[in-house]
TrEMBL record:
Pfam families, alphabetized: DPPIV_N (PF00930), Peptidase_S9 (PF00326)
Domain Dipeptidylpeptidase IV N-terminal: 378-538
Signal peptide annotation: 1-22
Transmembrane segments: none
Highest classification ranks of the organism: Bacteria, Pseudomonadati, Pseudomonadota, Gammaproteobacteria, Alteromonadales
Domain Peptidase S9 prolyl oligopeptidase catalytic per the UniProt entry, residue ranges: 631-826
InterPro entries recorded: AB_hydrolase_fold, Peptidase_S9_cat, Peptidase_S9B_N, Serine_Prot_S9B/DPPIV
Protein name: Prolyl oligopeptidase family serine peptidase
Alphabetical UniProt keywords: Signal
């Protein structure tokens, strides 16, 4: 559970909103609750039904589309839902409550928020109380009455909370752990962890001069004896007096605590430690902000690059608070803990340099699993017993382990090992215990697709789901009878919710949606809360009683957006000529499209970002501006295609890892198949096709224009990666290993290494304050192109923009340039 991990740090109502995906309501009540400036934006003239779009409308403040509900979750009584709404650019969110039988929501006042911030709370063993953290303080709710009590009121935030088996509450602040005794109300500090050397105390003289001083000077000897007596008295008092706080743990000054987890009875503390010198950023690197508020250039700290990020791994330590003993957890129990999993890669790179490589076994660096999407901890205790399962990953990205820990010996036993020659996915890692058992359930991609597995104690692993589809977002039902999950069984681009019976493996489909969705199971297990969308319909909230009729809960998409005649892109399967099967893509056709007309159409291919992301689906795209831009292009006579090139999400392990050590190669092959498909099926002139994209999509634009110069006639690269050695380690080292180990992969995959191939017009656009893909990436490539004497590129910079642009004026300028490029080069 999230609260069992020390650094969860998530406020219940702190809902992440994806780069500008906010929208707003069409009802006057919601409009009146916004500021006058927001009213002005909302009431601005939107596009009319069937009129031609303009770039200014598309790139304007997106609130005219509607301010949508975000981060929705269930109330504890399963009779209400809570969610947030935030207008574009608004620094704060507004929070709402809506009953399941109601058609409108009520905005919560600020003094009500502490009563509703319970999404990540923890239950006691009787399921009668919930403890949660709001604004750094602890609250407890009586579930039968709904009464809420505040237990702490302090400025130092609480980092985590849990109920102990005896009903007491434990919580931790920094590296200190406290217990609130239910019977007396006493707040007891049960652990104080100091990342420093243990004080030496009073020592006997050791040098000749010190011994002489004590022997000859009586005062010095007497003072030393008194100090010794005081120290001995304090030790005896601490041991004998039950009112004294627990002993301090001194764990050395070379490390820092990254995670802390407390056992259900409060006896054991499991820690992960890392070298305190290791940092997310490089000491010498900054990102200059040329428009600092004082008129000077501000030096903004920047993250480390993969080329210099030397992750030392984590060390696990078990503290026994009863005996005050410490055990270092050994990793020998992890299968393959010392395998040279990169031997082939190292051998290939050594051979390229005229050298040889000798493989040797050595313990690998590990850390707690860093899943990029989960809300749980990598440390899972059984509900009532001192048994713990830990999910670990190798720093080299080739292995994931689920291991149980022997609390007496401090040793690990492998319960499941997931090995991947490419890299273990940073998604699909949920796992846990079945209640009151030694049985574990978990997600794994071992068959090539993410599925649910059950490992009963002493038995073979049992798959609960099977097939060529992706399972995600698993939820154990309140009685542990079912495991609920999301899957794309019907089509890779269509999501639905299912459940599988744990005892029998019987599977049941619970929703009949025809787009994309996320879900949340009600606490009583009787209903699903859906956040669902279709191709031309942004996400709204729906209630799906299990076995009942679907009910729409919110309608925050504006009438102006709903009434416009948006073109829903067709989702097609493009045959691969490179052995990849089928590549799914969205296709937008020109207004008045005539396949038989003599004059062929120009076309544009959009390359989505992130690499591992799905965009050719039946839901509303997170790229909502691009969706509208593509509608505009069709009005100007273009065919537009969005491809889920290899490496994209939603198609299984082999699709994901096709880019291993060769980023930009299989993807460009897929783009080539996309161009050929449009020429054969959409009356497109293959000699009048352009491409564009941001981030990873910008990288692909480079790789296509540099390595296949005849494929596209023009390209625009937004916030683009130009050299993977300069990107971050958590993402890049999965796919390309690290530059010191695998320089071949980096040279093969980095656009700056292939810039000499540019022959067609290229537009490069970057935000100066981009702390994800540094502005320096574009600067280095521009200088490389200058030195190569390439005259066919232009650049545009955006001084105030981070990776995800915020200002409508920047969006407008960016897309005006893209549109101009295509009009000049493709028409």
């Amino acid at each position: 559970m999230t609260s069992l991990i020390r650094h969860s740090g998530l406020s219940v109502l702190a809902i992440a909103i994806l780069s500008g995906c906010a929208a707003t309501s069409n009802d006057q009540t919601a409009i009146e609750q916004l500021t006058p400036l927001q009213n002005q934006v909302l009431l601005a003239t939107p596009p009319k039904v069937n009129e031609s779009l303009t770039l200014k409308q598309i790139m304007a403040n997106p609130d005219w589309m509607g301010v949508l509900a975000k981060g929705a979750y269930w109330g504890d009584d399963s009779q209400s839902i809570y969610f947030a709404r935030q207008a574009h650019g608004d620094p704060v969110k507004s929070y709402f409550e809506q009953g399941v039988g109601e058609t409108t929501a009520t905005q919560l006042s600020l003094n009500e928020l502490h009563n509703t911030s319970q999404q990540y709370g923890v239950l006691n063993s009787e399921k009668s109380k919930k403890a949660y953290i709001y604004q750094g303080n602890i609250f407890v709710k009586q579930l039968s009455s709904g009464q809420v009590s505040q237990l702490t009121r302090q400025n130092t935030p609480v980092n985590g909370v849990r109920f102990l088996n005896n009903g007491d509450i434990a919580y931790w602040q920094g590296d200190n752990i406290f217990q609130i005794h239910n019977s007396s109300g006493l707040h007891e500090q049960i652990a104080s962890i100091k990342m420093s050397a243990k004080p030496k105390g009073v020592e006997e003289p050791s040098s000749y001069i010190a011994k002489q001083q004590h022997r000859l000077i009586q005062y010095v000897a007497q003072q030393h004896d008194k100090e010794m007596q005081k120290e001995q008295y304090k030790k005896e008092l601490t041991k004998a007096d039950p009112t004294m706080a627990s002993k301090v743990w001194y764990l050395g000054e070379g490390e820092r605590v990254t995670n802390l987890s407390l056992s259900p009875d409060g006896r054991f503390v499991l820690l992960s430690l890392i070298d305190k010198k290791y940092s997310w950023r490089a000491e010498h690197d900054i990102m200059p902000n040329y428009l600092g508020k004082e008129g000077y250039v501000d030096a903004v700290p920047a993250r480390a690059r993969v080329a210099e990020d030397k992750n030392p791994g984590e060390r696990l330590v078990l503290l026994d608070l009863d005996t005050h003993t410490e055990k270092a957890i050994t990793i020998e129990g992890l299968e393959g803990f010392d395998e040279d999993v990169l031997a082939k890669v190292k051998s290939e790179n050594a051979k390229a340099k005229g050298e040889s490589y000798k493989s040797e076994r050595t313990p690998r660096k590990i850390q707690l699993m860093q899943d990029w999407g989960w809300e749980q901890s990598a440390i899972q205790w059984q509900e009532t017993e001192n048994k713990v399962a830990i999910m670990l990953e190798a720093i080299d990205n080739k292995d994931r382990w689920i291991a149980t820990l022997d609390l007496g010996k401090g040793s690990l036993t492998t319960e499941h090992r997931l090995h991947d020659e490419a890299w273990v996915n940073y998604n699909f890692n949920q796992f846990g215990w079945l209640p009151k058992s030694d049985d574990l359930y978990y997600l794994s991609e071992e068959t090539g697709y993410s599925h649910i597995y059950l490992k009963r104690a002493g038995e073979q692993v049992e798959p609960l789901t099977q097939g060529k589809y992706v399972v995600s977002d698993i939820t154990l039902g309140p009685k542990a009878q079912f495991i609920y999950y999301k899957a794309n069984k019907r089509h890779p681009g269509i999501d639905n919710v299912y459940r599988v019976e744990v005892s029998t493996g019987k599977d049941e489909q619970l929703t009949q949606w025809d787009g994309q969705l996320d879900y949340s199971l009600s606490p009583d297990g009787k209903s699903l809360l859906l956040n669902a969308s279709r191709r031309t319909e942004p996400s709204e909230l729906y209630l799906q009683p299990i076995g009942g009729e679907l009910k729409k809960m919110t309608s925050y998409t504006s009438d102006a957006f709903k009434d416009y005649a948006w073109q829903a892109p067709e989702v097609v399967a493009v045959p691969s000529s490179h052995g990849a099967g089928e590549v799914y893509a969205r296709v937008y056709l020109p207004q008045g499209y005539d396949k038989s007309q003599a004059e062929k159409y120009p076309a544009v291919i959009f390359n989505h970002g992130a690499g591992y992301l799905q965009n050719a689906h039946y839901g509303f795209s997170g790229y909502f501006r691009e969706f509208m831009f593509h509608n505009l292009l069709t009005q100007q006579g273009y065919v537009v295609m969005d491809m889920d090139y290899r490496g994209s999400k939603g198609y299984g392990r082999d699709w994901r890892t096709a880019v291993y050590r060769q980023m930009g190669t299989p993807e460009v092959e897929d783009l080539e198949d996309g161009v050929n498909w449009m020429a054969a099926n959409a009356n497109v002139d293959a000699n009048r096709v352009g491409t564009y994209g941001g981030s990873y999509g910008g990288f692909l634009t480079f790789m296509a224009l540099f390595n296949e110069p005849e494929l596209f006639q023009a390209g625009a690269a937004l916030r683009p990666v130009t050299d993977w050695a300069h990107y971050n380690a958590p993402y890049t080292s999965n796919i390309l290993n690290t530059p010191d180990v695998d320089p071949i992969a980096y040279e093969r995959s980095s656009p700056i290494e292939h810039a000499q191939g540019l022959q067609k017009p290229l537009l490069i656009m970057s935000g100066v304050l981009d702390d994800n893909v540094f502005f320096q990436d574009s600067v280095r490539l521009v200088q490389r192109l200058i030195e190569l004497e390439k005259p066919m590129f232009e650049t545009a910079i955006y001084p105030v923009e981070p990776h995800g642009f915020k200002e409508p004026s920047s969006w407008l300028d960016e897309y005006r340039r893209i549109y101009k490029l295509f009009e000049q080069e493709l028409k």
